[in-house]
Design brief:
- The complex is a heterodimer of chains A (459) and B (163).
- Helices cover 81% and strands 0% of the residues of chain A.
- With 459 residues, chain A is mainly α.
- Classes of the chains: A mainly alpha (459), B alpha+beta (163).
Chain lengths: 459, 163
């Protein structure tokens, strides 16, 4: 019977982990302090609807944060303890989400468009965002990220990051509107605001994920996947916010639905991968590259570089998108698409280039490790399995053959075996590069798991 | 660590640094743009006296009732400016901005004596619409230099309710 987690639990006695967790704790503490300070400032000095929402939303954010932490750590525990932790995490996150939705509904949406419109907007954004997350996760062809972490990333982007920026942006925006000359100067200031605050808020989630769950954060490809997931989560809630706002503004003119629909298309179809997902993917890329660099200085440069590109990309869209005039004719529809392609396309192309190179780099190294493992003669990876494991299509074909022979159960068992073998290759790769703080026993545990799964497949 | 592996990682790292350099250039361009439209040292000390924001009667083109900061959606509104409060040698204008940053009403640019007959500046209902759009409106009296607004001499905010 398998009692270990999958992949096996990291060494709880590791001397490296506490240091990393210390940094994670400091980052989380900074986030919480920023949340509390900005919400109190908002409430005291602005006394507006967002001010009240921010103050009451603090509890929701705290619940989500604690729940997420317990959820993520639950998978490092044995099965008996894991269940308890999962239940605790589920209750906390559930309470947080409900509370947050109440805050949003009562203080923001119901006062503008009403809960029904807010609900319809959320339903409209769900399938597109889910499609985005599915595509983003599929991009990691060699070693897919666990759904739980992809969803955690998206949830953080949607709830924690948006909460952070509501407060920060309110203060910046009101201060700028009171101090600056309206027009291009103010627009540039607000573009800096969006770029800096939103990317810092989203990037904090990626950074925390890396610090807490480094064993699931392998390289640049994983970083891009997690970053894009955070961006998609952020984009989800921002889309709902803009759709309800536009609806409430234009409903009395009889075009509320059209206005909300245009926002939906712009943010959930045209901008699904071109906007927030692209920007935050750069932060993830920076963190992912830093994960494998040998020197601390290089690690810091890589992370800072990721943030700079994300902020610059976001800034350029917010500041200069209006340079492209959109005519009020049918050609305007073409212009809208061209504008997105010209303004955000180069950034998306850049992140795709990093992704493709990262997949190739990861694939070559996994192949190398699979050959080495096969050569040991342990039997976890056999020499004739290496070409199959190295190719996503051949792996799929093998699973489909199992499906034909023994049904869905066979498909799942073969899928688990392939995943465990790739986990083993990944573990070997990181160990060879001295990037692990798990003991050698963890590698043997993975090998044992592969052998047990192999017996199941044979049976 | 094999040299091939390190070279690949180094390529990724360097590519990221090249992208970041482009990012720094973009942000620097933004700072230059900001400095152009918000040039430092443009304070004259002049202050425009905004008499108030009032409900507007479009038929008589006159303000009605008391000075207010909040309006219903179906109300029209206008600002009243005392142009004599501003030094006569300045080039100024007055504008209404809606919450999207669009200009929804303007007088000038001219000198304050040249605008003496334009003391009432209404918010214009957008063409094809029944009412002005709800949201936060900003009214500013600005000083211009070389055709570019460089200083706000007076500013008021009002809210137009959604209902």
């Amino acid at each position: 019977m398998i009692t270990s987690t999958h992949p096996p639990a990291a060494d709880p006695e590791s001397k490296l982990r506490p240091r990393r967790y210390g940094i994670a704790f400091a980052v989380a503490a900074l986030v919480v302090v920023a949340l509390i300070a900005s919400s109190i400032l908002n409430y005291v000095y602005l006394d507006t609807i967002p001010g009240r929402a921010s103050l009451y939303g603090l509890l929701a954010v705290a619940l989500i944060t604690v729940g997420t932490y317990i959820l993520v750590r639950a998978f490092d525990r044995d099965r008996a303890m894991r269940r308890k932790h999962l239940i605790r995490a589920g209750v906390l996150i559930g309470l947080g989400v409900v509370l947050w939705l109440l805050v949003i509904d009562v203080f923001l949406f119901t006062q503008s468009a009403g809960p029904v419109v807010a609900g319809i907007c959320a339903l409209a954004c769900l399938p597109t965002t889910a499609f985005g997350l599915f595509v983003v996760r599929r991009m990691d062809r060699n070693h897919k990220e666990p759904w739980r972490l992809v969803l955690v990333a998206a949830t953080w982007g949607a709830i924690v990051a948006t909460s952070l920026v509501v407060w920060g942006e309110t203060i910046w925006e009101v201060s700028a509107q009171r101090a600056l000359v309206p027009g291009p100067g103010l627009d540039v200031s607000l573009a800096f605001m969006a770029g800096i605050l939103e990317e810092l808020a989203k990037g904090a989630a990626v950074l925390l994920l890396f610090l807490i769950m480094r064993n699931e954060f392998d390289d640049v490809v994983d970083g891009i996947v997690y970053g894009a997931a955070v961006g998609l989560g952020f984009n989800f809630l921002e889309s709902i916010s803009y759709m309800t706002n536009q609806y409430s503004i234009f409903a009395p003119e009889g075009i509320g639905g059209v206005a909300a629909g245009i926002q939906w298309y712009g943010r959930q179809v045209l901008g699904l991968f071109f906007g927030h997902a692209t920007y935050t993917a750069y932060i993830g890329a920076g963190v992912g590259i830093a994960r494998q660099l040998p020197r601390v200085r290089q690690k810091v440069f890589a992370i800072v570089a990721g943030f700079i590109i994300a902020i610059a990309g976001h800034f350029s869209w917010d500041a200069w998108a209006t340079i492209f005039p959109i005519q009020n004719t049918l050609f305007g529809l073409v212009e809208i698409h061209l504008r997105t392609l010209v303004m955000t396309g180069p950034f998306t192309a850049g992140v795709i280039a990093l992704l493709l190179f990262g997949i190739r780099y990861e694939g070559q190294n996994l192949l190398d490790q699979m050959h080495k493992e096969a050569a040991t003669g342990h039997g976890a990876i056999l020499p004739d399995e290496v070409p199959i494991l190295a190719s996503p299509w051949r792996r799929l074909r093998q699973r489909m053959q199992a499906l034909t022979r023994t049904g869905p159960r066979g498909y799942l068992t073969v899928s688990r075996l392939q995943t465990a073998q790739l986990d083993l290759a990944m573990e070997r790769w990181h160990r060879e590069r001295k990037e692990l703080d798990t003991p050698l026993e963890a590698e043997q545990q993975l090998r044992d798991r592969v052998m047990q799964l192999r017996h199941w497949v044979a049976a | 660590m094999s040299s091939v592996t390190y070279d690949q990682l180094r390529t990724l790292y360097r590519t990221l640094l090249v992208f970041a350099t482009v990012g720094v250039l973009i942000l620097a361009t933004g700072l230059v743009e900001f400095a152009y439209f918000e040039p430092p040292g443009q304070t004259t000390g002049a202050r425009a006296h905004i008499v108030g924001i009032f409900k507007y009667d479009p038929t008589n083109r006159q303000p009605v009732g008391p000075d207010r900061s909040e309006f219903a959606r179906n109300e029209e509104l206008a600002a009243v400016v005392d142009w004599s409060s501003i030094p006569a040698n300045l080039t100024v204008d007055a504008r209404w901005y809606d919450s999207f940053g669009s200009i929804d009403g303007q007088v000038g640019p001219s000198t304050p004596p040249g605008l003496a007959n334009d003391t009432v500046i209404p918010v214009v209902v957008p063409p094809g619409y029944h009412y002005i759009l709800p949201g936060r409106y900003t009214f500013v009296v600005e000083r211009l230099k070389d055709g570019v607004p460089v200083e706000v001499l007076g500013r008021r905010f009002v809210v137009v309710d959604r209902t």
